[in-house]
Amino acid sequence: MKHPDGLRHGSLLRVKKHCRNNVAIRKNGEYGILAPSVLRKYITHDVVFPNGARCVFVPMNWEVVSDVR
Question: Exposed end of the chain (fewer CB within 10 Å): N or C?
Answer without folding.
Answer: C
